[in-house]
C-alpha cells in the first residue's frame, strides 16, 4: 500500500515522507520543486516532478505506483503574500486541490489527508480555538484552505472518499539536520537570518494581557505534525471514520518573547530583541485545543521548546550556503 505525498520535497512534506518510511510504509512524492528541494526526497522514493494541476500526470503516477491514499501538502503557504497574489494562491491551493481530487477519482484512490491551516480561523474572539470555533479567514490563503476542506467534504458526499483535514498552527523545528525550514517568511529562519546578518530581532508589542506582555502563539514541532499524518492515513486506510477536521496544537502556547529569546540563546548571539509597537489586528493569544486529535490520532507534543529551537538551528546551520 503506497501513499502519495504531494509537496513531498518541501519542509513539511519531506518530514511526512520520512514519517511514513519510519513506519515501514511505502510512499511516493509529487512536487514541482517551486519551493521544495529534490535533495529532501530519499533516492529510493518514487518521485514525479509535476504541477498538482496536471490531472493526467497525477492520475497516471497514482496508477503506476498503486497509490491507496494521498497526503496533500502541496500549496502556496504564505498568508501575507497571498493578499497581493490572490490568483496564484487560488490556482495552487483551490484549483490544485480540485485537480488532486479529480486525479484520485480517475485512478480510483479513495482516501486523502489534507494539509489545512489555522488561518481558516482568522482572528478568533476566543483564547483557545476548537474545531467548532467559527471560521473567518482574513487572507486569500486562509480562504483557499477553507475551500480545500469544502472540496474534500463535497467529494466525500459525492464519491464516498474517506478524508480528514489537519489544521496546522506554527510549525517549527526539524526532524533531521538535512531538512531545514527554508521559507523566507517563517519566524525561525527569519530570526536566524537576522542574527547571522547582525540585525536585531524584533518583537511587536509588549503590553498585551499575557504573562510577559507579548503575544502568545501555538508552536508545534514538525516531526510531531508529520507523525499525525501517518496515523490519520493508517486510520483512513483501515476504514475508520475520522472527524472532517482536526487542530494540531499545543493547548498552551508560547509567548513571542520566549521564542525569540530561546532562539537568540541557542545561536549564542549577544543581543536583546527590540520592542516595536503592536501590529494592528494581532490578537493577544491564539492557542489550539488539540484534544480531538489526541483522542483520534494519538496527537501529542513530544518535543519541548528547547528541542524545537535546537533542532531548527542544527538544520539551519547544516544547510548548504
TrEMBL record:
Keyword Protein transport: no
SUPFAM superfamilies reported in the protein's UniProt record: NAD(P)-binding Rossmann-fold domains
Co-factor(s): NAD(+)
Tagged with keyword Isomerase: yes
Keywords in alphabetical order: Carbohydrate metabolism, Isomerase, NAD
Reaction equation(s) it catalyzes: UDP-alpha-D-glucose = UDP-alpha-D-galactose
A Pfam family recorded for this sequence: Epimerase
Domain NAD-dependent epimerase/dehydratase: 3-249
The protein's Enzyme Commission number: 5.1.3.2
Broad enzyme group: isomerase
GO molecular function ontology, one term from the record: UDP-glucose 4-epimerase activity
Metabolic or biological pathway, per its Swiss-Prot or TrEMBL entry: Carbohydrate metabolism; galactose metabolism
Entries under InterPro entries matching the protein: Epimerase_deHydtase, NAD(P)-bd_dom_sf, UDP_G4E
Similarity-based family: Belongs to the NAD(P)-dependent epimerase/dehydratase family.
NCBIfam families in UniProt: galE
Protein name according to UniProt: UDP-glucose 4-epimerase
Lineage: Bacteria, Bacillati, Actinomycetota, Actinomycetes, Micrococcales
Gene name linked to the record: galE
